[in-house]
Amino acid sequence: MSEATQQPETAIPQERLVVTEIPGPRSKEIHARRTRVVPPGVHSVLPVYIDRAHDSILVDVDGNRIIDVCGGIGVTTIGHTDDAVVAAATDQLNRVTHTLFTMTPYEPYVQVAEYLAKHVPGSSEDAPYKTLLMNSGAEAVENGVKIARKYTGRPGVAVLEHGYHGRTMLTSSMNHKGAPYALGYGPRVGDIYRAPNSYPLHDGLTGAEAAARTIAHLEKTAGAADLACLVVEPIQGEGGFIVPADGYLPALAEWCRENGIVFIADEVQAGMARSGAVFSIERFGVQPDIVLSAKGIAGGLPLAGITGRAEIMDKSLPGGLGGTFGGNPVSCAAAVAVFEQIEKNNLLAEAKRIESVFGDGLRALQEKHPAIAEVRGRGAMLAIELTKPGTLEADPELVDRVIAEAAQRGVLLLSTGIYNQGIRFLPSLKMSDALIGDVIAVLDEALTAAGS
Ligand SMILES: *Cc1c(COP(=O)(O)O)cnc(C)c1O
């Protein structure tokens, strides 16, 4: 792992340490204040208040060192407070923090666009890609849809079951899950068509069969000629880290091409090197028309990219795209450092190391714990699905108990799936084999303590 393992003496030890109950007394004190001034709609999975963090370790206000296997949901992909990211962002903070790119531009925005274009599978001089930068994943989705509508002149937006795209008005209408994301916030946005996905553990279909089902559904409900775009997560994130069957995504992309529908890969969670390719769609052999980035792009600073074929991106009128903070210079400088770290430290190979080391650990647990129905994922985006033994019925209470037991032991885990049927793992690409071993040992204990 080269430079990454050599940390300054002041760095946080990459080891778990539990010194109080979790949450500890100081966290509880802050939490009591929080409940008076922050509404419950802004929910925290584990109300442990964090003081500092480095690479895979969170240090809370009570001095506990917690192993972070979520990375703020796939954001700190190259680790918390990566030295190069901190240095680049600090330097940029001292130069200029804001001009508004649409007033007077700056180079880091252009550098980020160059990096994103370079990594789209299939991009070349003859197939150029261009990028608009915004602030959040939901904004990336919103703009992807806008751009596809402008290009096609059509209204329809196709999405998949188990999908998740954000919490703005448009994106909350695109999510599979009504509660809590859309319930009561209506009217929901129209012209959105949701089709069955590929979920091999449950549907038993081949990629070709699942794609035929998706396409037939969309042709019946929407009509291909009314569709501007199909928005798909190559690996569904909130929906359960669902990896589609082989051939599913290529068949959908082919159908989109034949019907003039813009194929949008929502890589907000799966992208930015986590899967073992900069864009996970590469691992499925598909060239997207538009690819969306956010979460992991800037090492924890807010930034989102909408990267698309030039002919699609060029349709919008000057001024039609953008926003005050979109492509903030500090976020852009951080993103450039993230790309440099991915290349310099060969982090795509690290993602594949994690796929094998973490994956082997999970498969060993599966032998011991019959509740683990499946281990799945790509790279450092892995999950287990927990079911009632001998069935494919979700066991959401078991999922919650396992996560609570792990938290008590200083390991931060997160559930996934519209039925709360799984536990997802989004470790830093620099997490050592030793630390992965500790996470697996804690998970083993937590599964046992939760009664699996
Ligand atoms: C998180 C997520 C979003 C929304 O991103 P925000 O930054 O929270 O707005 C969109 N799509 C996918 C796939 C996501 O995982």
From TrEMBL:
CDD domains (UniProt xref): OAT_like
Domain of life: Bacteria
Gene3D superfamilies: Aspartate Aminotransferase, domain 1 (3.90.1150.10), Type I PLP-dependent aspartate aminotransferase-like (Major domain) (3.40.640.10)
Pathway entry: Amino-acid degradation; 4-aminobutanoate degradation
SUPFAM superfamilies (UniProt xref): PLP-dependent transferases
UniProtKB keywords: Aminotransferase, Pyridoxal phosphate, Transferase
Cofactor(s) it depends on: pyridoxal 5'-phosphate
Catalytic activity: 4-aminobutanoate + 2-oxoglutarate = succinate semialdehyde + L-glutamate; (S)-3-amino-2-methylpropanoate + 2-oxoglutarate = 2-methyl-3-oxopropanoate + L-glutamate
EC number from the UniProt entry: 2.6.1.19, 2.6.1.22
Pfam families assigned: Aminotran_3
GO molecular function terms attached to this record: (S)-3-amino-2-methylpropionate transaminase activity; 4-aminobutyrate:2-oxoglutarate transaminase activity; identical protein binding; pyridoxal phosphate binding
UniProt-listed InterPro entries: Aminotrans_3, Aminotrans_3_PPA_site, Class-III_PLP-dep_AT, PyrdxlP-dep_Trfase, PyrdxlP-dep_Trfase_major, PyrdxlP-dep_Trfase_small
Recorded family membership: Belongs to the class-III pyridoxal-phosphate-dependent aminotransferase family.
Protein name per its UniProtKB record: (S)-3-amino-2-methylpropionate transaminase
